[in-house]
Design goal:
mainly alpha; 3-stranded antiparallel sheet; two-stranded antiparallel ribbon; 19 helices; globular
Length: about 450
Amino acid sequence: MMERGAMAHFRFGGGATGTLLHPLVAVGMLIAILLILTLPRSKAVTPFLLAYFTIPVGQVVVLGGLHFTVLQILILTVLARMAFRGSSSQGKFAGGFNALDRVVVLWSLLELIALVVQWMDTQALIKGLGDLVVYLGGYLAARFLIPDREAVQRMFKVLAVICVTQGVCMINEQISHINVFGLLGGIPLAATVREGHIRASGWAGGLVAGPFAGVLMPVFLWLWTREKSRMAACAGLAGATAMVFTSNASTALSAYGASLLGLGFWPLRKRMRLVRWGIVATLVGLHLVMHGPVWSLIEHIDLTGGSSSYHRYMLVDNCIRHFGDWWLIGYKYYGDWGFDMWDLCNQFVVAALTGGLVALILYIAIFSRSFGAIGTARKRVAGDRGQEWLLWCLGSSLFANVVASFGINYMFQLIMCLYCLLACISMATFEARQATVRRVVPYASAPGAVQEYVTAEGLTS
């Protein structure tokens, strides 16, 4: 077993000893930075996402011993534009700084504080600050770059292009056993093989690329409803499907299935409270009658014949049984809990062990507040099928992210995908509030009478 001191060194002192930047990546990064700084705000999301979701995370620039991935540099570029060219918070973010924003900020800062307190190490602080650029800076960048419906539609088109490109590359990886992105450096060139099956990786690895594509299916279906975007929607759906199945991972297939399941509840959108309580009752009932705990159901989810479903079950089980170890500020020696427990392939467990109970609650609150905002907004725009469908597709994609969180920890690319979705939700719910205000009509206007108004939410004076 690795010594605890050596483990700390591996966590915070590893990585390339020098700059690893392919010339093509360097040129692409510089072009992206220039476009981010000069294009109109709603169009700057295009170069940002194209660069962020095509450049391997292993491409780094080392300055003074500090590692800056290209992805971090892109985020810092957006933050610099926001700081020097933005105005008030109302102007920087659609609808202003809202409750969801506050939850994400608190979660990100608490994770940093807990990491520093756990380790009391300079290298841990440096790593924590680097992660903060992604986990907080990435969210602020996404919120800034998605100010309106036009930016949302453009973002989904860009993601469709990324998916179809990655899908073609991952199909080629299945055939040639070579990952073309490995030619750039920073990721393996040879395809990953498990149980005799190739796990196509693309630019991010099969465990990331597959779920990334799976959670995007609903937004591509919404894109289909936009007449001038149907070709992009078809490309996105085809590319995302190719990515999911060539990745050959249960988490990817689960996210894909969850997306379709969420969309399937569209006819029951006005009865979701009953559906939610039905799910809770079912889980409680299963926990009472099963021989093991209800979370042991994770052990039986193997959609590819080679999934580490038992490991995922044991990870959750150990986390629950060792509650006393991590509830305050997390726990750094979880690797001692058993075989392969160092592999935190569950984002909820990651939130618990790296930040404690409050961090876990905040991470769950990100989803609960988002679902709540979507539900409220859908009621406000009831009757407007176009807006209802957008909100429902966003909710289905969010549900797919919840499912994916049980099978993988959200690293750089997946967390940015989630943040883009959260930014779209904030924009769409703000748009719904504006639509409610616009629908205010005079209810009574007799001379001398108190003016009353009817809104989508009821009668007010």
